[in-house]
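step=encode ok
step=design start
structure_in=
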């Protein structure tokens, strides 16, 4: 009996070793680029993930949530340096699994999560807040905040992809390139003729 057991056990070890050594790809099979490519709204986001090589970093993680924005919402970083784009997109990668259901049932309606940017030693936390009006927001250390739109894909509990309203741009970023920045002067409104038409946001 004992004689049988020993070779059986070592055979099993050899087998496990071979499985792990020869077929590592069977363990991490989730490909963020592939998941996103199923939706044409995210081609710009996906292209940037590829260019910044964040695709590989995301695929190497076992538990990750990606906050994706659609093509129309990518303009704030178009034409920016790769360093800056990498920084911004790294903030959109949460190192934990959050699908829509989990986001809507946060303990205390709040969570502070670690992002890929944070993992490089930077100040890259995101605050997730489930507000009274039902909106779920994602805020970085700056004032820039995005809100949950919908689920794009989920593979519990490894990969979740969620669409958010806008890019989360960290503070002191060079993105405020609007030449016509609305100067918020402290003066009381002395010009009743000025109509603030520019604040129209289609819902
Ligand atoms: C999913 O996560 C579990 C637990 O972290 C891990 O054991 C498994 O290998 C992961 N699967 C993939 C496809 O990454
Ligand atoms: C995030 O939450 C922490 C802890 O509550 C708070 O100190 C910090 O000011 C928050 N940051 C943002 C940007 O909301």
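sequence_out=
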């Amino acid at each position: 009996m004992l004689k049988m057991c020993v070779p059986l056990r070592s055979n099993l070890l050899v087998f496990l070793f071979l499985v792990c050594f020869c077929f590592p790809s069977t363990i991490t099979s989730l490909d963020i680029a592939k998941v996103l490519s199923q939706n044409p709204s995210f081609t710009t986001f996906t292209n940037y993930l590829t260019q910044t090589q964040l695709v590989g970093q995301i695929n190497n993680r076992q538990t990750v949530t990606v906050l994706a924005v659609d093509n129309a919402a990518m303009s704030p970083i178009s034409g920016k340096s790769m360093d800056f784009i990498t920084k911004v997109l790294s903030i959109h990668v949460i190192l934990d699994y959050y699908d829509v259901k989990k986001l809507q049932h946060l303990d205390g309606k709040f969570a502070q999560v670690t992002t890929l940017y944070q993992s490089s030693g930077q100040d890259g936390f995101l605050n997730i807040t489930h507000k009274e009006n039902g909106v779920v927001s994602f805020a970085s250390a700056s004032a820039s905040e995005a809100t949950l739109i919908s689920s794009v894909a989920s593979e519990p509990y490894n990969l979740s992809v969620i669409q958010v309203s806008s890019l989360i741009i960290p503070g002191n970023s060079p993105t405020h390139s609007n030449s016509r920045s609305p100067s918020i002067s402290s003066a009381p409104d002395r010009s009743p003729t000025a109509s603030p038409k520019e604040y129209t946001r289609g819902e």
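step=design ok
step=annotate ok -> The pocket of 2-acetamido-2-deoxy-beta-D-glucopyranose (ligand 1) is lined by residues 27-30, 62-63, 158 (CB under 6 Å).
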